[in-house]
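INTERNAL AUDIT FORM
Audit reference: QA-55
Scope: verify that the stored structure record matches its stored sequence.
Auditor: D.O.
Record contents follow.
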Amino acid sequence: MDVQSITDVKDNNIQVLGHMLDMGHEQVLFCNDPKSGLKAIVAVHNTVCGPALGGTRMWQYENEEHALKDVLRLSRGMTYKNSISNLNLGGGKAVIIGDSRKDKSKDLFKRFGKFVDSLNGNYITAEDVGISPADMVYVAQETQHVAGLPGKSGDPSPVTAYGVYMGMKAASKVQFGNDSLEGKRIAVQGVGHVGEYLVEHLSKEGAKLFISDIHEPTLSHVATKYGAEVVGLDDIYDLDMDIYAPCALGATINDRTLNRLKCSIVAGAANNQLEDEFVHGEVLRGKGITYAPDYLINAGGVMNCYAEVVGLERSEVMKMAENIYNTTIEIINYSRKEGIPTYLAANRKAEKRIAELSA
């Protein structure tokens, strides 16, 4: 390795440590296995409330820097999500760099399981975007620190969707004076596992549905099954709608979309919906748009995994997800009373619990 290469490595290490310091991370593990093709990053943000739990996402990132940024934001979000949900868990996340439609293999997931196991229970993994419970079976062959397995808590998507639905109804209660979604024009961006379950709830209540997704077969299936109207990936931001529900990847609330959004509520399942929470949370508030904090209303999935870890019945999990309704109303009302964005109101509630447990 030449001098310039050594300098580059040192600079990159300093940059990673700087990001960790800025966001309060405890540990970041970089995983590389040429034999299986595994390239992954595991980020443990905070373990004050318990071992860090968060899913593994498989995505074809543009580069490693984007993957690192995503896993750092996602893992921090898990800390806040688990705290505000009163779960005895910390926050962590993992990303596997690759195309989930063609790069998966038994060996890749088994090797990933060994990396997870090397953290000695500090991190518990589960499925996320691009990963199925069946994939987690291979991970579980190499580590016991896995949740969301078939035959146990299983696919968390139905619980996640139900929590988002409850959060959406709560936001509607505050914004419109009642929580009925009948006749409301709702745009669901991303209709994969969680998005489709959400569409099902909304369809049963009589909402007018608009959907978009990058995967054409999924889009066609959901549109036909639930009578939803398909809109273009970019056109969704220009719809005249009551509720915008981002359920794909994050950062769709940004400088490029905010002036186009014509809605009263933002409530969806995607993580990190605000590209810059310090800027865009305040802009939403200034525009009179009620934002249901993503990590609050999409917490059903982690509740599902937590139930597997501690041995709760499914009925208890659904009650926990249903209570997202009450917490969402509490957070929105607190934000209005204090004159602060809802994301900040939620952060304060989550941080208060962490501080109490740290004392």
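Auditor finding: record pair retrieved intact. The chain has two domains: 25-71+89-147, 157-355.
Action required: none
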